[in-house]
């Protein structure tokens, strides 16, 4: 019998790449994450709104830590190895055990855009999900206007499946959402 996908998150897996550590959350991440999560540019295409106080971020980090302790969290802090700073987050969600699918999402601190960190983190998650958890398909969705995110998604070798019209309410407006995916048989860990 195949292990469930979620069983691979207990204990929570720390994943290492060239410049990054993808790991669980700690209270000490709060200030770094507040800088990102209070920035309206970071959450422009996200369903959540910018944090107005560090207390919001503290509550969020706390809830992550509880889920990490319970072995049910599927969200990683992206830490820059060199600076040891939490520079963003990456997650898998909407896991379907029956269909062996899940969706991936990510965001970075604005001062870390344009350095390839999101692509690096996402490739490491791709490697883990296909290599360890036995998924058959990994999905990424982005607002049609979110060109930066779409570029990162395409970098992963994902293919455009279609566009869901006015599918998600973001900051009061219904957004067209582009759906991308990569299948197990298409995934090539050696791809540059
Ligand atoms: C989406 C988001 C994570 C993309 O960040 P990013 O830094 O542009 O993404 P990547 O890691 O793929 O980096 C690619 C860029 O880094 C550059 N780069 C520099 N060094 C690099 C390296 N070593 N390796 C790869 N790319 C590198 C690339 O040339 C590319 O630049 P370009 O966009 O000017 O062509 C970021 O814009 C973000 O956090 N946005 C807000 C949240 C969001 O919208 N999340 C997605 C929701 S679906």
Protein traits:
192 residues; alpha+beta; Aminopeptidase; 8-stranded mixed sheet; 8 strands; 27% helix; globular; binds coenzyme A
Strand-helix topology:
Blueprint: E1 15-16, E2 20-23, H1 30-37, H2 54-70, E3 75-80, E4 85-96, E5 101-108, H3 117-133, E6 137-143, H4 147-155, E7 159-170, E8 173-183
Parallel strand pairs: 5-6
Antiparallel strand pairs: 1-2, 2-3, 3-4, 4-5, 6-8, 7-8
Helix pairs in contact: 1-2
The structure holds coenzyme A (COA).
Describe this structure in words.
The structure is a single chain. The protein has 192 residues and is an alpha+beta fold. It has a single domain (6-183), classed as Aminopeptidase. The protein contains 4 helices and 8 strands. It has helices at 30-37, 54-70, 117-133, 147-155, and strands at 15-16, 20-23, 75-80, 85-96, 101-108, 137-143, 159-170, 173-183. The chain has an 8-stranded mixed beta sheet, sandwiched between helices. Strand 1 (15-16) and strand 2 form a beta hairpin. The longest helix has 17 residues, at 54-70. It binds coenzyme A. The site of coenzyme A has 20 residues, from strand 5, helix 3 and helix 4. Residues 42, 45, 105-108, 113-119, 142, 146, 148-149, 151-152, 155 line the site of coenzyme A.
Number of separate structural domains: 1
Described by strand count, sense and barrel closure, the largest sheet is: 8 strands, mixed
Query: The CATH topology, please?
Result: Aminopeptidase
> How large is the radius of gyration?
16 Å
Name the CATH class: Alpha Beta
* Total count of strands: 8
Helix content: 25-40%
Say which molecules are bound, naming each kind only once: coenzyme A
Count every helix, treating DSSP H or I runs of 4 or more residues as helices.
4
Structural class: alpha+beta
What fraction of the residues are assigned to beta strands by DSSP?
25-35%
Name the CATH homologous superfamily.
Gcn5-related N-acetyltransferase (GNAT)
Provide the residue-averaged pLDDT: 97
Overall 3D geometry?
globular
User: In angstroms, what separates the terminal alpha carbons?
Assistant: 33 Å
Q: Going across the biggest sheet, name each strand in turn.
A: 1-2-3-4-5-6-8-7
Stretches where pLDDT falls below 50 for ≥5 residues? none
- CATH-level-2 architecture: 3-Layer(aba) Sandwich
Give the SSE order as H and E letters: EEHHEEEHEHEE
């Amino acid at each position: 019998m195949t292990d469930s996908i979620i069983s691979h998150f207990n204990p929570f897996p720390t994943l290492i790449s060239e410049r990054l550590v993808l790991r669980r959350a700690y209270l000490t991440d709060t200030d770094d994450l507040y800088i990102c999560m209070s920035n309206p540019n970071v959450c422009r295409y996200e369903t959540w709104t910018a944090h107005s106080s560090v207390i919001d971020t503290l509550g969020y980090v706390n809830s992550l830590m509880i889920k990490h302790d319970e072995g049910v969290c599927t969200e990683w802090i992206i830490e820059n190895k060199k600076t040891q700073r939490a520079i963003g987050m990456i997650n898998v969600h909407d896991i379907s055990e029956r269909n062996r699918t899940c969706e991936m999402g990510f965001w970075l601190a604005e001062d870390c855009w344009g350095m390839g960190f999101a692509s690096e983190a996402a490739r490491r998650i791709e490697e883990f999900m296909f290599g360890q958890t036995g998924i058959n398909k990994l999905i990424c969705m982005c607002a049609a206007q979110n060109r930066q995110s779409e570029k990162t998604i395409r970098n992963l070798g994902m293919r455009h499946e279609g566009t869901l019209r006015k599918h998600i309410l973001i900051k009061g407006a219904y957004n067209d959402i582009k759906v991308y995916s990569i299948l197990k048989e298409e995934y090539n860990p050696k791809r540059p």
